[in-house]
Amino acid sequence: MATTTTSAATTGKGSVTLSLHPLVIMNIAEHYTRVRVQTTRTTSVYGALLGKIKGRHIELCNTFEFKLADVSTATTRASVTIDMEFLTKKLELIKQVHPDLDFTGWYTVEGKDWNSSIMSSFYSQLASLNESPLLLRLDPIGVSNELPIHAYETIVDLGTKIDFIEISYTLITEEAERIGIDHVARYSVTDGTSDTSIVSDQIAIQYNAIRLLYQRMLVLLEYVRAIKQGQLERNDDLLREIASLCQRLPIINTDDNTNQTFREDFDIQQSDVALLALLACCTQEISTLNDYLNKFQVVHDKQQHSSGPGGSFGYGSGGRRMVRGGAYFPASFV
């Protein structure tokens, strides 16, 4: 097997044009943030890029994570092994749902001093799926007025040397993406004086409210226990207020989940949701059938108007007239 060498990334004019959807950037950022929170350490993440290939133009639309053979040592080795069986199966399932999406490359989250040897190992493993896969790198610590996204085209020079040519890209959005980005931008803007966003502030407020409710409920619980043990005097008005408050709280039993009232209400709600989903499917199927019938009627009317005595209507391919009842039908309808 020939030995492959890797050159540092260079900036040049690539042979492809690239369009990038914001969903790709949001997925990569979410993947990195989730892994960073779960592992509490800086680590690299990798995943596949999905897009539409039209000649020399590539439109990146979505991503999904790679399943690595050994995640624990993935960031300390000079190469990373991808579970190709999982990747192939995943691409087959995606192809069934989205036949217009193809595997276009992979992404990583690394700084400007990224490891090109690991990227070469990725290229060697993914070349069977795409002979010239793209590399999309998100710089988590880069400071710039532009998006910290860098796209590279992989080119094999003389069969042994892998060059990563940085190419430019353009951002394109759809209506649903614009709504989502506007929502994220609206609730993630800081006031310039703190490092927390509006979303973090709202979550903190909800957390404090739930914690305060829990503490107050513990106080009421101790009060009821003290009355039951005869340590405090009974106050019927206060007990009625406590009973009214308890009736407002969820009736789920968190210990064994055997509360019969909760199970009945939950089953009813689940059945209602399933029924609504079934009705929606039935409505969609009826609408599809209605469209088919309308199109069939249009084609039938056109053939009826265009056919006359001695015409093709009512005759088979061998000139045989096809008759049913008192009406004539084309051979294809019989």
Describe this structure in words.
One of its GO terms (biological process) is protein deneddylation. The protein has 334 residues and is of the alpha/beta class. It folds into two domains: 5-186, Cytidine Deaminase, domain 2, CATH 3.40.140; 198-269, no CATH class. 44% of the residues lie in helices and 18% in strands. It is built from seven helices and twelve strands. Strands 1, 2, 3, 4, 5, 6, 7, 8, 9 and 10 form a ten-stranded mixed beta sheet that branches. A two-stranded antiparallel ribbon has the order 11-12. Helix 3 links the parallel strand 6 (102-109) and strand 7. The longest helix has 47 residues, at 260-306. It is flat. The relative contact order is 0.09. The model is unreliable at 72-76 and 311-325 (pLDDT under 50).
What would you say about this model in short?
The chain is of the alpha/beta class and 334 residues long. 44% of the residues lie in helices and 18% in strands. The strands form two sheets. Strands 1, 2, 3, 4, 5, 6, 7, 8, 9 and 10 form a ten-stranded mixed β-sheet that branches. A two-stranded antiparallel ribbon has the order 11-12.
Assign the CATH topology of the largest domain: Cytidine Deaminase, domain 2
According to CATH, the homologous superfamily of the largest domain is Cytidine Deaminase, domain 2
Share of helical residues: 40-55%
Instruction: Give the structural class.
Output: alpha/beta
Radius of gyration: 32 Å
Q: Look at the structure and give the mean pLDDT.
A: 78
Keywords: Cytoplasm, Nucleus, Signalosome
Family: Belongs to the peptidase M67A family. CSN6 subfamily.
Pfam family, one: JAB
GO molecular function: metallopeptidase activity
